[in-house]
């Protein structure tokens, strides 16, 4: 494993771009040279492998930390807060990412069979030690960044191998659910997408459960398991994440930002924003405005 990680670090450092993209569609490389305070983002549906350093994510009341030689799977696009730990210019945090597409996993399962699939939806994020076979496939995929002639033909084959290693690995049940259209995870994902797209609007949990194709009790149980939040808490988190983004572009209209993300009460918006981010929106907006050119 150490030899694999050493070569992977060298390649990731060489091919890292500021926007994290690469010449292979769906493959991402992160290189972070300083540790910043935790910041909110959406997880995406992704496999993430750490080659150097560590990253810490929080989702609801759950905290995930993964280090060199470990991988994280996010099977639903979730509002997380995270940061790289102990990163520096001398020893940057280096990571590999692969976007997980349900259609690709579904196609793989058609040939291999669904295998063991949990009856209930699993947590939407999981961390495991990366087996040598997975690291080897990741390394071969990153090597293709150096051989454009081979890339178009071989990259899809190696990506398929990586997906197979995930499907047959420790988090296989979670990854399989991502590829099965009628799994508990996909039902919750439909609800997550609806809330994310309509975050500023009030809703009844019964209506979203119906949209997800689940009974209210099953929906509550599975949604909490996947997201570590209730549907209402999830909506609140999405609203506050969006408010933070809006404040970056419109720092002078705090009340307007609160109303745009669905808050009728400015005081409630300020209180919940402070609770989520450690400072009221007025203080945060002031810092953002001072940083603008």
From TrEMBL:
Gene3D superfamilies: Homeodomain-like. Keywords: DNA-binding, Transcription, Transcription regulation. This is AraC-type DNA-binding protein. Signal peptide: none annotated. The keyword Transmembrane helix does not apply. GO terms for molecular function: DNA-binding transcription factor activity; sequence-specific DNA binding. InterPro entries: Homeodomain-like_sf, HTH_AraC, HTH_AraC-typ_CS, Tscrpt_reg_HTH_AraC_N. Residues 189-287 form the HTH araC/xylS-type domain.
């Amino acid at each position: 494993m150490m030899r694999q990680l050493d070569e992977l670090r060298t390649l990731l450092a060489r091919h890292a771009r500021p926007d994290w993209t690469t010449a292979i569609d769906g493959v991402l490389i992160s290189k972070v040279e300083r540790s910043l305070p935790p910041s909110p983002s959406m997880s995406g549906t992704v496999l993430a492998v750490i080659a150097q350093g560590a990253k810490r994510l929080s989702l609801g009341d759950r905290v995930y930390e993964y280090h060199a030689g470990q991988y994280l799977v996010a099977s639903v696009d979730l509002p997380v807060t995270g940061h790289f730990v102990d990163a520096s210019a001398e020893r940057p945090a280096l990571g590999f990412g692969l976007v997980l597409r349900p259609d690709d996993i579904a196609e793989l399962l058609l040939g291999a069979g669904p295998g063991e699939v949990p009856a209930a939806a699993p947590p939407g994020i999981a961390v495991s030690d990366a087996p040598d076979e997975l690291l080897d496939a990741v390394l071969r995929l990153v090597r293709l960044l150096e051989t454009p002639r081979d890339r178009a033909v071989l990259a899809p084959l190696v990506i398929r191998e990586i997906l197979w290693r995930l499907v047959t690995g420790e988090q296989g049940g979670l990854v399989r659910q991502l590829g099965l259209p009628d799994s508990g995870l996909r039902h919750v994902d439909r609800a997550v997408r609806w809330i994310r797209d309509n975050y500023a609007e009030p809703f009844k949990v019964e209506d979203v459960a119906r949209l997800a194709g689940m009974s209210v009790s099953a929906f509550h149980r599975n949604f909490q398991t996947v997201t570590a939040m209730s549907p209402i808490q999830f909506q609140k988190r999405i609203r506050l994440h969006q408010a933070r983004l809006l404040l970056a572009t419109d720092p002078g209209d705090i009340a307007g930002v609160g109303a745009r993300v669905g808050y009728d009460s400015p005081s409630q918006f300020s209180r919940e924003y402070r609770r989520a981010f450690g400072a009221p929106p007025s203080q945060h907006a002031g810092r953002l405005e001072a940083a603008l050119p």
